[in-house]
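We emphasize that the prediction below concerns an isolated chain of 78 residues; any contacts that depend on oligomerization or on bound cofactors are therefore not represented. The input was used exactly as deposited, without trimming of termini.
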Amino acid sequence: MFLTIFILSLALLAIGILGMSVQAYFSKKKTFPDPSVSANRAMRKRKIYCIKTEQLLLDKNYKLKSGEKDSACGRGHC
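Result of the prediction step, given as a token string:
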């Protein structure tokens, strides 16, 4: 029973990989979408940013809400 399910899942996986490779090989574009969040236009339209930009936005919003001028001042280093 287990062996039958295992072989079936491997066959389906192989068919999927073969299908993707054939599509990539015969595609007219010959390029893959850019996985980088900062360079991908569709992700920017959905307001999905890279982690550095997200952190900068969060820090800026926090400073605006708390009235801080510098992040070091909030930690008692002024």
